[in-house]
């Protein structure tokens, strides 16, 4: 059973409380690495006659058997020598694009976040369709050489600690303020309404077991030369006086940051493409409740929502499925028009190819990028300035590092110190940080923010 469906069934059965108290569900527990996935695979595919409502819970009769060889860094090749591309999505699964078709499936695992075994040489049932989004099929993939099963254990925070109320730590805030001048922290009394588990959800959902994404790839000399000609400061909220960014929102206690980052990216790209004639506010709830490519309030990925879901199924306006911050059943108004993207990719072409220079170029030439980064406990109390992770810890709450998705809208250089920064739209309401935004150190892959930016092309 695909992970999303098993999760949805758990949720329907009312097991949500159980899973969130244990804080063990976020993204999927699969932990598969590039080395596990590269190699030759056999894809077994059903008849190519479905549409985007195709359900792949069960595979059905196999009509096509294809062998694809996936090699470094992103080349896919079939038995006939036809070439395509592929990419990992974090440690969760992989997408293959070849012979005018696109395939995506989650890597296979058993267990949950506290204790799981990943079988990286096979996938859950996935979805395949042609480049024009027609002729859908289901498939399952098996690698032709076995990969040793990987056991993952996670030291999870005890349930009673996750259930306790989150508390601001004045000492940590003072220490941050006193120890450095780049950024300031402050107490947010309003976040004490959340439990520790809910705060972890706000930060991205309890992290998957991949501790760090890949380091940024080196930039070419040619790209560096191009970048040197860009302005020192740029911000899509003020391009010669014009704002292309939709208002900041608040994700509440649901681990849905990736849907807010994704909607924010498509909203901004629509505004840019139409010179603000279209000012959509899109529905994160639709992606939370209806997408088989996400884990709802337990996490997901920009690549799969701003990218693949927006291409496969399209996005709807907020009023077609108003945000409720829960794993509610999918009840999107089917009469609503859907907005699609025609293209999506990790910057540089695949997961692992990103860097600051590519991000600068794409940000300014194409528009806001959805990104993700590691959230430590000092970040929740960010007040203003240019964030970098400090060593200070909140002594009241148990620590779990989580991975948060957000929208990059600008960059600059602080004149007094020369410190370079990114400007980023968060989804924690407009009273948090710098009117809902934060700045974070640029050029040093701070908290891995330069490791996996996603680009899309929205169709206005
Ligand atoms: C594509 O789908 C249609 C039905 O939707 C079917 O008639 C056709 O044979 C399919 N094409 C391929 C190549 O399977
Ligand atoms: C695909 O790979 C499998 C396993 O190595 C092999 O048995 C099969 O003949 C291959 N099929 C094609 C079409 O190359
Ligand atoms: C830290 O500095 C910020 C900004 O100057 C201020 O708002 C906040 O109250 C300070 N907090 C503490 C505990 O010193």
From TrEMBL:
Its cofactor is chloride. Its EC number is 3.4.14.1. One of its GO terms (molecular function) is dipeptidyl-peptidase activity. InterPro entries: CathepsinC_exc (IPR014882), CathepsinC_exc_dom_sf (IPR036496), Papain-like_cys_pep_sf (IPR038765), Pept_asp_AS (IPR025661), Pept_cys_AS (IPR000169), Pept_his_AS (IPR025660), Peptidase_C1A (IPR013128), Peptidase_C1A_C (IPR000668). Residues 230-457 form the Peptidase C1A papain C-terminal domain. Keywords: Chloride, Disulfide bond, Hydrolase, Protease, Signal, Thiol protease. GO terms for biological process: proteolysis. The keyword Disulfide bond applies. It comes from the Eukaryota. It catalyses: Release of an N-terminal dipeptide, Xaa-Yaa-|-Zaa-, except when Xaa is Arg or Lys, or Yaa or Zaa is Pro. Residues 1-26 form the signal peptide. Pfam families: CathepsinC_exc (PF08773), Peptidase_C1 (PF00112). Thiol protease. Has dipeptidylpeptidase activity. Active against a broad range of dipeptide substrates composed of both polar and hydrophobic amino acids. Proline cannot occupy the P1 position and arginine cannot occupy the P2 position of the substrate. Can act as both an exopeptidase and endopeptidase. Activates serine proteases such as elastase, cathepsin G and granzymes A and B. Belongs to the peptidase C1 family. Tetramer of heterotrimers consisting of exclusion domain, heavy- and light chains. This is Dipeptidyl peptidase 1. The lineage of its organism: Eukaryota, Metazoa, Ecdysozoa, Arthropoda, Crustacea.
């Amino acid at each position: 059973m695909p992970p999303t469906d098993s999760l949805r069934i758990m949720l329907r059965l009312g097991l949500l409380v159980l899973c969130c108290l244990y804080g063990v569900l976020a993204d999927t527990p699969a932990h598969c690495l590039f080395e596990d996935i590269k190699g030759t695979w056999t894809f077994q595919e059903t008849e190519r006659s479905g549409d985007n409502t195709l359900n792949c819970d069960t595979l059905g009769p196999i009509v096509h058997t294809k062998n694809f060889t996936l090699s470094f860094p992103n080349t896919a090749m079939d038995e006939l020598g036809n070439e395509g591309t592929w990419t990992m999505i974090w440690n969760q699964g992989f997408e293959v694009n070849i012979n005018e078709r696109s395939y995506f499936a989650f890597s296979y695992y058993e267990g949950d976040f506290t204790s799981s075994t990943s079988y990286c040489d096979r996938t859950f049932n996935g979805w395949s369709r042609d480049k024009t989004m027609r002729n859908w099929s289901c498939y399952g993939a098996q690698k032709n050489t076995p990969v040793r099963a990987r056991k993952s254990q996670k030291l999870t925070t005890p349930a009673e600690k996750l259930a306790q109320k989150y508390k601001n730590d004045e000492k940590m805030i003072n220490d941050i303020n006193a120890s450095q001048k780049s950024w300031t922290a402050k107490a947010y009394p309003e976040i004490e309404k959340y439990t520790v588990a809910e705060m972890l959800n706000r930060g991205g959902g309890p992290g998957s077991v991949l501790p760090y994404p890949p380091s940024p790839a080196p930039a070419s000399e040619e790209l560096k030369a191009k970048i040197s000609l860009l302005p020192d400061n740029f911000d899509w909220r003020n391009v010669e006086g014009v704002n292309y960014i939709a208002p900041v929102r608040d994700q509440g206690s649901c681990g849905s940051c990736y849907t807010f980052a994704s909607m924010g990216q498509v909203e901004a790209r629509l505004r840019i493409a139409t010179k603000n004639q279209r000012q959509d506010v899109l529905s994160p709830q639709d992606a939370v409740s209806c997408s088989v490519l996400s884990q709802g309030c337990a996490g997901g990925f920009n690549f799969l929502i701003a990218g693949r879901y927006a291409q496969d199924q399209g996005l709807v306006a907020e009023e077609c499925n108003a945000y409720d911050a829960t794993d509610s059943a999918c009840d999107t108004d089917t009469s609503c028009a859907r907005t699609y993207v025609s293209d999506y990719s990790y910057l540089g072409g695949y997961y692992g190819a990103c860097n600051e220079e590519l991000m600068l170029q794409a940000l300014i030439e194409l528009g806001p990028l959805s990104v993700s980064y590691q959230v430590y406990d000092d970040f929740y109390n960010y007040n203003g300035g240019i964030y970098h992770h400090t060593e200070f810890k909140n002594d009241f709450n148990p620590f779990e590092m989580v991975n948060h998705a957000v929208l990059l809208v600008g960059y600059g250089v602080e004149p007094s110190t020369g410190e370079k920064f990114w400007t980023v739209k968060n989804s924690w309401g407009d009273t948090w940080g710098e009117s809902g935004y934060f700045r974070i150190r640029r050029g040093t892959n701070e908290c891995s923010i330069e490791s996996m930016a996603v680009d899309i092309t929205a169709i206005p």
